Predict the 3D structure of the following.
Amino acid sequence: MTDPIPDIRPMTAADAAAVEALNEHAFGPGRHVRTASRLREGVPADPDLTLVATLDGRLAGSVTMTPIVIGDDPALLLGPLAVDPDFEKRGIGGRLVRETLTRAKAKGHRLVLLVGDPPYYGRFGFHALAPGQVTLPGPVDPRRVLVVELGDLARSAAHGMVGKARS
């Protein structure tokens, strides 16, 4: 028997408390001091690309996409990606990543960066950058800084300081 397919849709204000609780459970209270979290502070997530997955009316997972810059180039920051433990090992995280990347490409975005697990995200086309190619404004394991190009951008063209998107 196959697992049911989750409903994936943009996150709404009504989802915010449940998504916050899911992220708290998945990443703990220390997540707010991490470099990637600090890049998201004060920058609204892209409402078309920040998605939730539901099964039987329950929040099963969520993914956030936040506008950033790498050097002078616009990009997106993927994360956090979280799946409720009751729904793990059902492919929900993968479905969320694939769907948000598909939607990002359709909107004309060309580059997505994340700090995460190379084996997991590699299957979606994410790859590591050369040491020093991009710099984040805080401590991060450089082996976990990954990017995926969504358009005709040359592989590994990202270069410079990662920062908050400018309005």
User: Anything to note?
Assistant: The helical segments are 16-27, 35-40, 92-106, 118-122. The first strand starts at residue 7 and ends at 10.
